[in-house]
Amino acid sequence: MLKVESVSKLFNPGTVDEKIALMNAELHLKKGDFVTVIGSNGAGKSTLMNLISGVMKPDAGNISIDGNNVTLVPEHKRSQWIGRVFQDPMAGTAPRMTIEENMAIAYKRGLARGFSLGVTGKTRKIFREELHRLGIGLENRMGAKVGLLSGGERQALSLLMATFTRPQILLLDEHTAALDPARAELVTTLTEAIVRELNLTTLMVTHNMEQAIRLGNRLIMMDKGRIILQVDEDRKKDLTVERLLGEFEQISGKKMADDRVVLG
Ligand SMILES: Nc1ncnc2c1ncn2[C@@H]1O[C@H](COP(=O)(O)OP(=O)(O)OP(=O)(O)O)[C@@H](O)[C@H]1O
Fold first, then answer.
1. Contact 173/202 with Cβ under 8 angstroms?
2. What residue ranges are annotated as transmembrane (predicted)?
3. Are 140 and 54 in contact (CB under 8 A)?
4. pTM of the prediction?
5. C-alpha 64, offset from chain centre
6. What is the whole-number distance in angstroms between the Cα of residue 126 and the centre of ligand 1?
7. Triad 71, 73, 78: Cα angle to 5°
8. Which residues pair with 69 in a beta bridge?
9. Which domains are present in the chain?
10. Among candidates 134, 73, 53, which has minimal Cα distance to 99?
């Protein structure tokens, strides 16, 4: 489904500020794989997500989705295959627009050109049904401005909007990190339900080790621009935070340096 093959990305190449953000990354995901991504500060996690979503182009290597080489396909064209939710609840939605207007934008992404942004009776019914699936009552507040929603509600809406058009791949970039524990848990539960129901191929960056172990069927660990550890389905079942930290120290020769890391 998703193939990242020998992908590298350098910033400021050939200067004193040269930075290897990603080096020879190799990652193959099957349909329905849910991979959690963990790593120290500056490990290259966001760069990997940005390269997959097309925000930036790699200096070397190829990225393909469902057999199509998308390495040079611009971000707006890739968005038909990829849904993404960011850490900042403000990032995925337009605060001055209502819930249904926001949903209309997400809906339009999945339709042919020329679809009007207007919310008709038919689309409103679809939106209401989709919102109802979240189970947090947003279907009764469709005319409310999104800026008035709580962070958790906004992230739940962003998640719904990112998956509305049934993308092939879902990228979650620490999407629960800015929420309080109760809301983070709600959005996590919704994430699991949506990913399972739509059988989405998912990559989720998290600083929460316990979450990285608990969610998904695979796990990767990154350090200094490299994927240093890939844990497959069978081994992931036996993983613990202690074991994961031990593996990191053994491979990288240092302790996990990330003040945001949550051990569980
Ligand atoms: N636009 C940029 N220009 C220069 N260097 C960059 C740029 N973006 C990222 N980097 C560098 O590339 C490396 C990887 O960054 P990236 O943001 O991918 O790491 P990360 O694993 O997401 O880190 P964090 O968990 O701290 O957000 C870092 O050293 C970072 O400073």
1. no
2. none
3. no
4. 0.90
5. 17
6. 39
7. 105
8. 64
9. 31-58+71-252 (3.40.50.300)
10. 134
State if residue 21 touches ligand 1 by the CB under 6 angstroms criterion: yes
Distance 61 CA to ligand 1 centre (A): 19
Q: Kindly give the confidence (pLDDT) of every residue in the chain, 264 residues in length, as a single tens digit, with 9 standing for 90 and above.
A: 999 999 999 999 889 999 999 999 999 999 999 999 999 888 999 999 999 999 999 999 999 999 999 999 998 888 888 999 998 878 888 999 999 999 988 887 765 444 455 667 788 898 999 899 888 999 999 999 999 999 889 999 999 999 988 899 999 999 998 888 888 888 999 999 999 999 999 999 998 888 999 999 999 999 999 999 999 998 998 899 888 888 888 888 877 766 566 665
- What is the number of the ligand 1 atom nearest to the C-alpha of 41? 26
Q: How far is CA 67 from CA 2, 64, 77, 193, 203, in A?
A: 8, 6, 16, 27, 18
Tell me if 240 sits within 8 A of 71, measured CB to CB.
no
For residue 186, give every residue at least 6 positions away whose Cβ sits within 8 Å of its Cβ, in sequence order, or none: 136, 152, 156
How far lies 220's CA from each of 21, 30, 121, 233, in Å? 16, 15, 44, 11
Which phi-psi region, left, alpha or beta, contains residue 32 (left: φ > 0; alpha: ψ -120 to 50)?
Answer: left
CA of 44 to the centre of ligand 1 (A): 6
Going by alpha carbons, the residue nearest to atom 10 of ligand 1 is: 21
Q: What's the complex ipTM?
A: 0.96
Burial of 49 (C-beta count, 10 Å sphere; 0-12/13-18/19+): buried
Query: How are beta strands 201-205 and 60-65 bridged, if at all?
Result: unpaired
Residue with tokens 């999104």: 146
Which of these, 63, 22, 34, 21, lies nearest to 203 by C-alpha position? 34
